[in-house]
């Protein structure tokens, strides 16, 4: 089993709401949190292989939103193809998560631009998935993304 894969994702909004954990819910996982104090997540980037998501990073803006975002480095493995939706959005409005037997196999984000139009990001990862789940964050700022990875003890 590889440790270079995203096992699960959890999201938190500016109103204190926390999503369910998407993906692998087993014990013995290592957690990383993408968060920048007093900032909103406004874009995502990362790495993926044909089988699963290997790393996830984010762009953040201070709240209230300013014209320039800060890129938070992707957390996770080194392998796979990189992708970057950019950080020039007002916020994340919908998150589509594909899960498989080993955790997160794909992600797709819908963003809101400065004219309040929805911009659909590309599909990142394996489209042949077992389950598809969605998180909707309409009119809330996404402020935190928790990512877990397998922690194999030998």
List the helices and strands and how they pair.
Layout: E1 8-13, E2 22-23, E3 29-34, E4 39-48, E5 53-62, E6 70-76, E7 81-84, E8 91-100, E9 103-112, E10 118-120, E11 124-125, E12 131-136, E13 142-150
Antiparallel strand pairs: 1-2, 1-13, 3-13, 4-5, 4-7, 5-6, 8-9, 8-12, 9-10, 9-11
Please outline what is shown here.
The chain is an all-beta fold and 154 residues long. It has strands at residues 8-13, 22-23, 29-34, 39-48, 53-62, 70-76, 81-84, 91-100, 103-112, 118-120, 124-125, 131-136, 142-150. Strands 8, 9, 10, 11 and 12 form a five-stranded antiparallel sheet that branches.
What's the CATH C level?
Answer: Mainly Beta
Number of strands: 13
Task: Determine the number of helices (DSSP H or I, runs of at least 4 residues).
Answer: 0
CATH architectural grouping: Aligned Prism
Under CATH, the homologous superfamily reads: Jacalin-like lectin domain
Unreliable runs, pLDDT <50, ≥5 residues? none
Shape: globular
By secondary-structure content and strand pairing, the structural class works out as mainly beta
What proportion of the residues form beta strands (DSSP E)?
Answer: over 45%
Number of domains: 1
Secondary-structure element pattern, one letter each: EEEEEEEEEEEEE
| Residues in helices, as a percent range | under 10%
Distance separating the two termini: 12 Å
Mean pLDDT: 80
Describe the largest sheet: 5 strands, antiparallel
């Amino acid at each position: 089993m590889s440790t270079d894969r995203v096992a699960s994702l959890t999201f938190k909004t500016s109103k204190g709401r926390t999503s369910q954990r998407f993906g692998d819910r087993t014990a013995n996982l290592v957690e990383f949190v993408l968060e920048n104090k007093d900032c909103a997540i406004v874009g995502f980037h990362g790495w993926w292989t044909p089988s699963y998501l290997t790393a996830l990073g984010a762009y953040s803006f201070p709240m209230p939103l300013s014209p320039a975002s800060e890129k938070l480095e992707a957390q996770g493995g080194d392998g796979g193809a990189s992708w970057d939706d950019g950080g020039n959005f007002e916020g994340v409005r919908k998150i589509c998560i594909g899960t498989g037997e080993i955790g997160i196999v794909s992600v797709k984000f819908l963003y809101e631009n400065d004219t309040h139009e929805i911009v659909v990001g590309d599909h990142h990862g394996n489209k042949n998935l077992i389950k598809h789940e969605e998180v909707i964050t309409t009119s809330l700022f996404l402020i935190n993304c928790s990512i877990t990875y397998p922690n194999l003890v030998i």
